[in-house]
Structures are given as structure tokens and as C-alpha cells.
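Subject: two folds for Thursday's group meeting

Dear M.,

Sorry for the delay on this. The cluster queue was jammed most of the week, so I only got both jobs back this morning. I'm pasting them in the order they finished. Each block is the input sequence followed by the predicted C-alpha cells. Could you check whether the formatting survives your parser before we put anything on slides? The first protein is the one we discussed after the seminar.
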Amino acid sequence: MLLESSAEVAKLVKGLQDQGLTLALAESLTGGALTATFVEIPGVSAVLRGGACTYATDAKASVLGVSGARLTETGPVDGVVAAQMASGACRLFGADVALSTTGVAGPGPSDGKDAGTVWIAIAGALGAEERLLHLEGERDQVRAATICAALALLGEHLAAGAS
């Protein structure tokens, strides 16, 4: 399911290519859909290194190197966790830039957080930022809005890196 127009995602891919950057993705609530959004674009292999779907909390630690102590303290829906997921994806895939998603898609609360509570992050050569989202809607709408927000975050950082 392509959640952003192909033309917009293609612009992000071109922006990465123009800046000589590679991309990795670390996903939880989006379950690989963010990676799939990029894979829809012909030629993405020039920039996309890989994606890790770390849906389980312990996989965030074992695959991406997220602090187990932090996960115990805050749970997986946390800005520091999102930041560590993105940094871990950079390391895991040898990428210049990574995006991450972690949160509660719903239908109900999880880990003490309301449905629609989401953290996204970017790490690497374009800088680091974590962003808290409070999204409305059903599970699929929360996941789609998360992907759009992650793409927008990358776009903002690409624009700043190009100037």
C-alpha cells in the first residue's frame, strides 16, 4: 500500500542520491510498510540499504542495540528508543541516514500509552531528531499517518542538508 504519492517519495530518493546518502529503516508499528513505500520507487536500490522490522520489544534491543535498561524503564514507545532504533539501523545496515517508527497503532492502549501515541526519529548524516505524534483514527490510519510523518521528517532534513 503506497501511502504517499510515488512522485513525492521519488523526490526523497532523488534527494538522497543527489546528496550521496544511503538510507536504512527501523520499524515497529509500521511493520515494514515504510520500507515498502520506498521499495515502490524504481531505482531505490541506489540508496536503500535495508529495513529492520523490530515489532517485539526485545528485538529492538537484540537487533538494533536499543538499551535494554531504557526499554524496561520507559517501554518501547519513547523518544530515546526511537532515536536508538534509528542509530541502530544506521549501524546495522552501514547507512548514512535512518528513520525509525515506534508507537501504538491501536485499537486500544499498549504499554501504558494511548492508541495514536507514536515516536518517529531520524539519525545520521542529516542530523538527529525525535518527534512525538498524537494521531487520530483507526489502526490503519495511525500507521499511514506515521509513514507520512516519517517521510516528511526525512524531507525536512534533506532540504536542510541541501542548503
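Second protein, same layout:
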Amino acid sequence: MRKERCRNILMKRRVRVECYCRRSSNYDIERKVRILHKLIPNCESSMGLERLFRETADYVLALEMRVKVMQILVNELSA
């Protein structure tokens, strides 16, 4: 009887910990998506994840191109 009671208590604690971990994980993901929405210019908050990731990839490519252009300008002007 006592052994079964201890087992039930442990199971309840495990379930609580697992729920907390899942909730915490979901919260972290949602927080990161909100931050990403803020970082991407002209990004609507109602945008779906797939479109958000596409917009993010396009924005990163645009930034890379800007850096390359600036590197070329610096090399040409310093020569």
C-alpha cells in the first residue's frame, strides 16, 4: 500500500515536470518568433511561420549582398 502511494506521488510529480517543460519550450519558441517578427522589416505579425521564415531568408540574403557591395566599394576606394 505504502509503495503504491509513493509510486503515485512520483508519477504525479513527473507529469507536472513534463508539462512544465513542454509549456516552457513552447513559450521559448513563441518568444523567439515574436522577436524574429520585430527584427524583419515590413513584417506583419499575422504572417504564418512559413512566410516568416521565407521573409527572414530573403532579408539575410539582402543583408549579405549589402555587405559584399560595401566591401567592393571599400576595396575600390582604398586602392
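Two things I noticed about the second structure. The first helix runs from residue 2 to 39. Residues 6-78 form one domain.

Cheers,
T.
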